[in-house]
């Protein structure tokens, strides 16, 4: 569900007429740029591909269904559970992955490839395998709490969070700024809090949004663990009231999309201020070069 | 020990030190450090007087940066210790050592403007916001960057960034200032300006400074004493002029400045037969009699315009007041001789000359098959 966030640069898709070059021949009419035509073709095709199902869903649900979603039995509690799980998962994931990624970058650079491999595992291992394993060994008190699912989600979110943070760290001269901070009297915690984290803000935001989007949309694990999260509630209600569940899905999609837009705006603002690299969900471009000597 | 630090500071330029703080004495005692099978440091010992600027000079991999990082607390030693004002700080973590450091790569915090970067160390020392801003502003002013206080690192040039980094390191009034090739990323002109600025500030504040560089010109022009390192060991530490004029080893002789290597023969009476004459070997020569190389600086050779001499001029390089003349001697040996430019004008390539040595002691080294 998480679509690519960063859109083309300004004017990239725009149909603005290219201003004639000053001092040019002037008389001939501007030629239609073939690349611009192709951009429009791709844009329209992609638009149709993505928007047509949404429009169909909107037509099927009807505007009135959005009003009745909120009062529907289980809506509030399932949404609250999903939000709660998203918060807990995000906090645990960041608390685990940030120091780990920083430590590996600083002290164990040789282990980085191994860690990348390990973080891929949750993607290649089917969730059902994970669930069976966890249920077999989890202590009783965990099985009866929301924490169990949150911990499973931490594993699931690990590849996305690690990659976002790793991309942010690669764009920094981590070793030098850490040592500079140390030499000025800052300990490890202060360095992490005041120097590393502010420079990883965009990467951390990416990690957070991906984790939240993943938790809000996850169905298999919640269903197998018998939790009624928001996606499970949507599925259950689709059996009895299709229109309401489609309306709820559209709402969830809209909220997620808003969150993704927010991160893009925040990331752009930070980059403009500090000259940091551009970080979208999985890609980081290098920091801006220093100007001359 | 040559120390020209304490007397000249404030009065000369009317400036006043940020505080009355003075540098500490530093003693590196028998430092050794290995990385796997590679010995980065092998029993390095250096004593640095309060307020002195010592440069560590040497080729890549000689251990100079390792030594600096050990003093900073970023590396540990296998054996040996670091003493500051007589106190062993080997076990003290880097953030408690009170040492300012300027790094080779730009190390400013990208999320902070110049003023906040300079104020960071003061913040760690719990100074109030107003006091911090005032002092950071003073430091920026001192490096001539007060107008750039609100700019972020990416808005500053490389030279400006290193000046902010210097101000940041000095803001905490460190007991020792550590400079890890801070000028190597800058272009020649900026490097020269910043070199002078660092030296002036260091002398004004009297901060004990350890400076690592592979650039001999930088080391010789800035330091009170220069330590030349090779394979983890200190070959010689001395004032720049002494290092140049009385190098202790063949490596130092050739590493610092330009040196000719001329084949000769060491006799049992410690005289060396070279260029058709006899000259005494320098004191401390431990080479066995036989074939050796004599090491002589371009300005230490005599050259006369003589028909059928022992060499032919092959090239001339104009260096300002002097011109360096390349002369091909018999035996396919090329030497470089410095002559006043006015005299060198009469020595075009192809001119026959005679190169000789004045009767002064020369450095003798084991014979090397290839000449430089």
SSE topology string of chain A:
HHHHHHHHHHHHH
**Biggest interface pair, counts:** A-B, 29 and 41 residues
**DSSP strand (E) fraction of chain B?**
25-35%
Strand content of chain A: under 5%
Mean of residue pLDDT of chain A? 80
CATH superfamily of chain A: MetI-like
CATH architecture of chain A: Orthogonal Bundle
The radius of gyration of chain B is: 24 Å
- Rounded radius of gyration of chain A (Å): 23 Å
Strand order of the largest sheet of chain B: 6-7-8-3-9-10
Poorly predicted tracts of residues of chain B: 1-20
Give the count of structural domains of chain A: 1
Helical element count of chain A? 13
Structure in a nutshell:
Chain A has 293 residues and is an all-alpha fold.
What's the arrangement of secondary structure elements?
The complex is a heterodimer of chains A (293) and B (372).
Chain A: H1 34-61, H2 63-69, H3 75-107, H4 112-124, H5 127-137, H6 140-143, H7 146-170, H8 174-183, H9 188-199, H10 201-217, H11 220-224, H12 230-240, H13 242-274
Chain B: H1 9-13, E1 26-35, E2 38-48, E3 53-57, H2 64-72, E4 79-84, E5 87-88, E6 99-102, H3 114-124, H4 129-142, H5 158-171, E7 176-180, H6 188-205, E8 208-213, H7 216-222, E9 225-230, E10 233-238, H8 240-245, H9 250-255, E11 260-266, E12 271-274, E13 277-280, E14 290-296, E15 302-305, E16 311-318, E17 322-329, E18 333-340, H10 341-344, E19 352-356, E20 363-366
Parallel strand pairs in B: 3-8, 3-9, 6-7, 7-8
Antiparallel strand pairs in B: 1-2, 1-4, 4-5, 9-10, 11-12, 11-14, 12-13, 14-20, 15-19, 16-17, 16-19, 17-18
């Amino acid at each position: 569900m998480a679509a690519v966030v960063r859109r083309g640069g300004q004017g990239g898709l725009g149909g603005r007429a290219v201003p004639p070059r000053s001092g040019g021949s002037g008389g001939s009419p501007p030629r239609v740029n073939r690349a611009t035509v192709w951009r429009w073709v791709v844009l329209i095709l992609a638009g149709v591909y993505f928007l047509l199902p949404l429009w169909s869903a909107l037509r099927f649900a009807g505007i009135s269904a959005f009003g009745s979603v909120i009062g529907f039995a289980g809506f509030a509690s399932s949404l609250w559970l999903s939000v709660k799980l998203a918060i807990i998962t995000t906090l645990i994931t960041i608390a685990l992955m940030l120091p780990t990624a920083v430590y590996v970058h600083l002290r164990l650079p040789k282990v980085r490839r191994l860690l990348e491999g390990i973080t891929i595992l949750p993607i290649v291992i089917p969730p059902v395998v994970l669930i069976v394993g966890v249920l077999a060994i989890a202590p009783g008190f965990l099985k009866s709490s929301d924490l169990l699912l949150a911990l499973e989600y931490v594993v699931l979110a690990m590849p996305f969070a690690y990659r976002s943070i790793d991309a942010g760290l690669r764009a920094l001269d981590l070793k030098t700024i850490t040592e500079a901070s140390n030499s000025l009297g800052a300990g490890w915690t202060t360095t992490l809090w005041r120097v590393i984290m502010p420079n990883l803000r965009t990467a951390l935001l990416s990690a957070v949004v991906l984790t939240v989007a993943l938790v809000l949309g996850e169905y298999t694990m919640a269903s197998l663990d018998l939790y009624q999260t928001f996606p499970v509630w949507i599925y259950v209600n689709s059996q009895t009231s299709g229109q309401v569940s489609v309306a709820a899905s559209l709402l969830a999609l809209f909220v997620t999309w808003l969150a993704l837009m927010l991160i893009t705006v925040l990331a752009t603002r930070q980059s403009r201020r500090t000259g940091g690299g551009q970080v979208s969900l999985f890609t980081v471009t290098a920091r801006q070069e220093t100007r001359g000597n | 020990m040559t120390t020209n630090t304490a007397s000249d500071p404030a009065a000369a330029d009317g400036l006043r030190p940020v505080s009355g703080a003075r540098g500490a004495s530093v003693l590196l005692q028998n430092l050794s450090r290995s990385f796997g099978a590679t010995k980065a440091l092998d029993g390095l010992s250096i004593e640095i007087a309060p307020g002195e600027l010592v440069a560590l000079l040497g080729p890549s991999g000689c251990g100079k940066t390792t030594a600096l990082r050990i003093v900073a607390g970023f590396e540990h030693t296998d054996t040996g210790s670091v003493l500051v004002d007589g106190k062993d700080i080997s076990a003290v973590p880097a953030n408690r050592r009170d040492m300012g450091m300027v790094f080779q790569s730009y190390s400013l915090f990208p999320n902070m403007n110049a003023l906040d970067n300079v104020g960071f160390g003061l913040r760690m020392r719990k100074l109030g916001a107003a006091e911090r801003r005032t002092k950071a502003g003073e430091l920026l002013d001192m490096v001539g960057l007060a107008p750039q206080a609100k700019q972020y690192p990416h808005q500053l040039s490389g030279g400006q960034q290193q000046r902010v980094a210097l101000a940041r390191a000095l803001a905490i009034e460190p007991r020792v200032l550590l400079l890890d090739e801070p000028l190597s990323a800058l272009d020649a002109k900026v490097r020269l300006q910043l070199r002078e600025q660092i030296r002036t500030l260091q002398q004004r504040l009297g901060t004990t400074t350890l400076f690592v560089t592979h650039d001999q010109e930088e080391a010789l022009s800035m330091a009170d004493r220069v330590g030349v390192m090779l394979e983890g060991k200190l070959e010689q530490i001395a004032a720049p002029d002494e290092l140049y004029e009385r190098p202790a080893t063949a490596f130092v002789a050739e590493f610092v400045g330009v040196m000719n290597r001329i084949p000769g023969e060491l006799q049992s009476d410690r005289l060396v037969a070279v260029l058709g004459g006899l000259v005494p070997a320098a004191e401390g020569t431990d080479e066995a009699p036989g074939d050796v190389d004599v090491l002589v600086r371009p300005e230490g050779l005599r050259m006369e315009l003589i028909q059928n001499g022992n060499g032919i001029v092959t090239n001339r390089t104009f260096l300002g007041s002097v011109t360096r003349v390349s002369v091909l001697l018999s035996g396919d040996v090329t030497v470089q001789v410095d002559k006043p430019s006015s005299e060198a004008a009469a020595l075009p390539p192809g001119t026959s000359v005679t190169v000789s040595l004045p009767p002064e002691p020369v450095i003798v080294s084991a014979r090397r098959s290839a000449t430089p």
